[in-house]
C-alpha cells in the first residue's frame, strides 16, 4: 500500500499532538505540587523552547541542511515570535482565568479558525466534509470534558476568550508558514522560528517581576526538575514542533490543525494511567469522535488544494 505525502503529514501531526499531550502533563508536574513550585510558567517556557531550538540547530549543523535566505528571515522570525512566544504567553494567561477543561475546549477551535482563514485566502477550499470533520473532532473534545466544563472560576469567560485568541494565533501560524515550508525543510524552518520565539521569551524574563511572575533559580531545581525541563525541551519542543512543521509541509493546514484534538485526549489518558484518574464513558466517546473527525477531514473529496509556491512554481496538490 502506497503511503501518500498527505497521509505522512497527518500522521506526523497526530504524533505531534500526542507528544504535546505528554508535554501538558510534564508541564503540570513541573509547575505544580510535584515540581515543588521551583519552576514558573514563563521561565519554563523559555527553557523549553530554547533547549528545543538549540537541539534543532545542532542537528541542522550536523546534517548541513540549507538555511533560510536573508529575505525570508524577518517573516520567519515574526512567525516564530507569534507561535513560540505569544502563543504560550496567551495560553498561560488564559488558564489564569478559566479552568483547564474549558481552556482545552476553547483551544479546539484551532482547526475551525485555520479552515476559515485558509479558505478566505484561497489556500484551501472549505468543503462540507472538512467542516463536518472539524466540528466532529471539536465535539469529541467537548464530550470528553463534559463533566468538567461547568466547573469554572467566576469570570471564566475572559479566559475562554483569551484561549480562542490563542487558537487564532495558531491558525495564523499554520496558514502563513506554508510558503516557507515549501522553500525549506520543516526542521530548518522550525529551528529558526523556535529560536526567535525563545529569544523573545528570554527578553521578557527581566520584566517578569512587573508581570507578577517570579522566575526560577537554576540552583533551586532538583534532578527531577531538570529531567522534566530536558524532556520538555527535547521531546515537548524540538520533536513535537518538527513533526507539526513536517505535517504542514506535506498536507493542508486544516488537516494538521484538526489533530490538535488529540492533545487533550492524550493528557486525559496519561492522567488515567499515571495519576489514577477515572476513564469515563465521555472520554472513550470523545476519543472515537476525534478519530472519526480526523478521518473524515483527511478523506479526499475531489477538490484541488492550492499549494504554496516554491521557486516560482506551484507545487502539486
TrEMBL record:
Keyword Cell cycle: no
Source organism of this protein record: Pelagibius litoralis
Entry annotated with the keyword Transmembrane: yes
Official protein name in the record: DMT family transporter
InterPro entries according to UniProt: AA-Vitamin_Transporters, EamA_dom, EmrE-like
Pfam families: EamA (PF00892)
Superkingdom of the organism of origin: Bacteria
PANTHER family, alphabetized: EAMA DOMAIN-CONTAINING PROTEIN, INNER MEMBRANE TRANSPORTER
One Gene Ontology term, aspect cellular component: membrane
Amino acid at each position: 500500500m502506497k503511503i501518500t505525502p498527505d497521509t505522512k503529514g497527518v500522521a506526523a501531526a497526530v504524533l505531534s499532538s500526542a507528544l504535546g499531550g505528554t508535554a501538558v502533563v510534564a508541564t503540570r508536574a513541573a509547575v505544580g505540587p510535584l515540581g515543588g513550585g521551583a519552576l514558573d510558567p514563563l521561565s519554563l517556557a523559555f527553557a523549553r523552547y530554547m533547549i528545543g531550538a538549540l537541539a534543532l540547530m545542532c542537528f541542522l549543523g550536523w546534517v548541513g541542511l540549507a538555511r533560510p535566505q536573508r529575505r525570508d528571515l524577518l517573516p520567519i522570525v515574526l512567525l516564530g515570535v507569534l507561535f513560540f512566544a505569544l502563543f504560550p504567553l496567551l495560553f498561560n494567561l488564559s488558564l489564569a482565568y478559566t479552568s483547564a477543561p474549558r481552556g482545552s475546549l476553547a483551544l479546539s477551535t484551532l482547526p475551525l479558525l485555520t479552515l476559515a482563514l485558509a479558505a478566505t485566502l484561497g489556500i484551501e477550499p472549505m468543503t462540507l466534509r472538512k467542516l463536518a470533520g472539524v466540528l466532529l473532532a471539536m465535539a469529541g473534545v467537548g464530550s470528553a470534558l463534559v463533566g468538567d466544563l461547568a466547573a469554572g472560576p467566576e469570570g471564566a469567560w475572559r479566559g475562554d476568550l483569551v484561549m480562542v485568541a490563542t487558537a487564532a494565533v495558531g491558525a495564523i501560524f499554520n496558514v502563513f508558514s506554508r510558503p516557507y515550508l515549501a522553500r525549506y525543510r520543516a526542521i530548518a524552518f522550525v529551528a529558526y522560528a523556535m529560536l526567535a520565539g525563545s529569544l523573545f521569551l528570554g527578553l521578557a524574563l527581566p520584566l517578569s517581576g512587573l508581570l507578577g511572575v517570579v522566575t526560577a533559580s537554576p540552583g533551586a531545581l532538583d534532578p527531577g526538575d531538570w529531567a522534566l525541563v530536558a524532556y520538555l525541551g527535547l521531546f515537548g519542543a524540538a520533536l513535537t514542533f518538527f513533526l507539526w512543521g513536517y505535517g504542514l509541509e506535506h498536507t493542508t493546514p486544516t488537516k494538521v490543525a484538526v489533530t490538535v484534538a488529540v492533545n487533550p485526549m492524550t493528557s486525559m489518558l496519561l492522567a488515567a494511567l499515571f495519576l489514577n484518574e477515572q476513564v469515563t464513558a465521555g472520554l472513550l466517546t470523545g476519543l472515537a469522535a476525534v478519530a472519526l473527525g480526523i478521518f473524515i477531514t483527511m478523506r479526499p473529496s475531489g477538490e484541488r488544494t492550492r499549494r504554496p509556491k516554491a521557486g516560482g512554481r506551484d507545487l502539486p496538490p
